[in-house]
Amino acid sequence: MKKWGLLLLVTLLGACKPTPQQHIRLLGGDWDLARATTAVAKVELERAGYAVTVELVSPGQIWSQLARNEADASLVTWLPEGSRGHAERFFDKLHDLGPNGPVLTLGLVVPANAGIDRIAELAGSGYGHNRVVGMMPGHGIMAMTEQALARYRLDEYELLSGSGEAYRHLVQTVIDEQLPVVIAAWAPESRMMSERLKWLADPEGHFPATERPHTLIRRGLERDAPKAVEILAGLHWSAQDIAFLLAEAGPEHDFALAANKWLRRDTGGAE
Length: 271
Description:
Protein name: Response regulator receiver protein
Strand order of the largest sheet: 2-1-3-10-4
Shape: globular
Helix content: 25-40%
CATH topology of the largest domain: D-Maltodextrin-Binding Protein, domain 2
Pfam family, one: OpuAC
InterPro entries: ABC_Gly_betaine_transp_sub-bd
CATH superfamily of the largest domain: Periplasmic binding protein-like II
Structural class: alpha/beta
Number of domains: 2
GO molecular function: transmembrane transporter activity
């Protein structure tokens, strides 16, 4: 009788044990660097047996959704400056697994044929109709560009925001037609590798020089899916790694294809 009671207790305890989470919700961003690293994370998690969904959202939504446990992880948030406002609100409600990529180059770019070479030379020039083209509101480059414009006293310049698709289209048009446009930019990023663009020198260092993308996860994921957290924490890319992913995505920007090529390269061809 004692034996059957023990077996029943073990069975009941086993039934009460939480089922490991098998579905991971990743939050990505609509820019090439974010799409590339998120695609690799998706492939790596799927290889470990997880079902993975990816949603492209604004940077602010990444922080708020993770803080509310509405998603599991993101690899695309910039710190320490690009997400300072969001971090002040939400940092203590999630976990930061640390930087996953190289230090970003941040600044302003113009067509290669532009007659200016330094950010300070924009003052009084009217170049680009006193406008700087930026990304979506809340994107890391926006706040840092606003700060840089203020520090260079370029008060006549207006920073414009738009969707990721609109930004990519405009940058490609500037490359193709060498239009007089000032672009808030970061690298590594596919189009910023073009020799038909040039970075304006920032000798005052008003753009941050320590910005990196970080991996954030919701609180409790380490309990619900510890293997997934281990995988996410182990994902790191050098500048050369990112260049490989962006190049392999090709003109079609097929980041799923690039991620699978990355996996084959990372595993020596064996999957």
